[in-house]
Amino acid sequence: MKTEGMTEQEINERHAEKMAKKKAARDKMIATKTKEGGLLMVHTGKGKGKTTAAMGLAARAIGTGMKICIVQFVKGAWETGERKVLEHFPEQCVMKAMGEGFTWDTQDRERDVTAAKQAWQYAVDAMNDEQYDMVILDELNIVLRYDYIPLDNVIETLKNKRSDLHVVVTGRNAKEELIEIADTVTEMTQIKHHFRNGFKAQEGIEF
Amino acid sequence: MKTEGMTEQEINERHAEKMAKKKAARDKMIATKTKEGGLLMVHTGKGKGKTTAAMGLAARAIGTGMKICIVQFVKGAWETGERKVLEHFPEQCVMKAMGEGFTWDTQDRERDVTAAKQAWQYAVDAMNDEQYDMVILDELNIVLRYDYIPLDNVIETLKNKRSDLHVVVTGRNAKEELIEIADTVTEMTQIKHHFRNGFKAQEGIEF
């Protein structure tokens, strides 16, 4: 807003006018939104925050009384800070870590495929279990990228999920087919990363 | 990976080889990362997940024993689900909501400027308070965009923050000057949004 030469009162008046217009546009937009129901949300991209935002969604869901299930596809071995927080709500949050750590640490494709298949079966059961309002499939995209489980099967299952169930899928390189059927897709883009400045992974930030 | 005509064993062997190379590259990269210390992290962009990822970071930090302070610059009136979860950790998490809701709901610039200045002063005090390991400045970017508080002052303060303090800034349209001094900047890009498909804001997802 160009405010040069304007008095404080003029600035305030112009601001009120501009905001009133914005509010009217927003109210009109919101009035068209009437659908409710389970969403399929995808967090992808190379930036930070994909899993972290899913964990934030988990906290929000728990705070509103939902019951959730988190299936971790590849970070099984990690003890993360948020796990400790979520463990305070055992009645509302079930966490299942099926993976064995990032694949470049195991280097055993056969074992990874077995773990991925088990994790997927567990996820399918959770999505069919009506006690859950939200299921988070953490790092499922990684598993799909390496073809550890059949993409067609995953897409079919997600397409036919219960209409009241929220599903969150995380991981870089989300498949086109998944983006196609999702309700919301957010790409976390890395503009700058502290690793580039020589910082190492620190407790409370990365894990 | 092209696997046509390959046996399962060949696929597994090639995978192990590829992963070993990746791991070597990764280990080499990690060995150069030795710095520790407080980071300035920015979540910006038009997509979902900026505040949610900050809340996830808060949960992670709490889980590792940190003490954090969250200053909400513009969503003061909102009762969010994650607030209820964070309230379980009163010893480790202080939340201060100073704003009066999104500016298009108040349309009173003078009141917004006053609230923003108070919030910023509170934030400065929190950043100087050595009991905190992390301070989250939620939606500070919005306040900066509307020139409610002087950018120079904010940049100077953040540049000279305690070296062991983590600071997280959220909000779309992050200023260039802020991106410049940040350690990590993630842009949440909206590829698809369920509002476009007629879904309304739902409890547990948007608030």
TrEMBL record, chains A, B:
Give the Enzyme Commission number. 2.5.1.17
Q: Where in the cell is it found?
A: Cytoplasm
Where do the coiled-coil regions begin and end?
none
Which InterPro entries does the record cross-reference, listed alphabetically?
A: CblAdoTrfase_CobA (IPR003724), Co_AT_N_dom (IPR025826), P-loop_NTPase (IPR027417)
Known catalytic reactions: 2 cob(II)alamin + reduced [electron-transfer flavoprotein] + 2 ATP = 2 adenosylcob(III)alamin + 2 triphosphate + oxidized [electron-transfer flavoprotein] + 3 H(+); 2 cob(II)yrinate a,c diamide + reduced [electron-transfer flavoprotein] + 2 ATP = 2 adenosylcob(III)yrinate a,c-diamide + 2 triphosphate + oxidized [electron-transfer flavoprotein] + 3 H(+)
Q: What GO CC terms are in its UniProt record?
A: cytoplasm
Query: Cob(I)alamin adenosyltransferase N-terminal domain location, by residue?
Result: 8-30
- Classification via Gene3D superfamilies: P-loop containing nucleotide triphosphate hydrolases (3.40.50.300)
Q: Name one Pfam family in it.
A: Co_AT_N
What domain of life does the UniProt record list for this protein's source?
Bacteria
Q: List GO molecular-function terms, semicolon-separated.
A: ATP binding; corrinoid adenosyltransferase activity
- Which UniProt keywords are listed? ATP-binding, Cobalamin biosynthesis, Cytoplasm, Nucleotide-binding, Porphyrin biosynthesis, Transferase
Protein's GO biological process: cobalamin biosynthetic process; porphyrin-containing compound biosynthetic process
Q: Does the record's keyword annotation contain Cell membrane?
A: no
Similarity comment text for this entry: Belongs to the Cob(I)alamin adenosyltransferase family.
Q: What does this protein do?
A: Required for both de novo synthesis of the corrin ring for the assimilation of exogenous corrinoids. Participates in the adenosylation of a variety of incomplete and complete corrinoids.
What's the protein here called? Corrinoid adenosyltransferase
**What is the scientific name of the source organism?**
Aestuariispira insulae
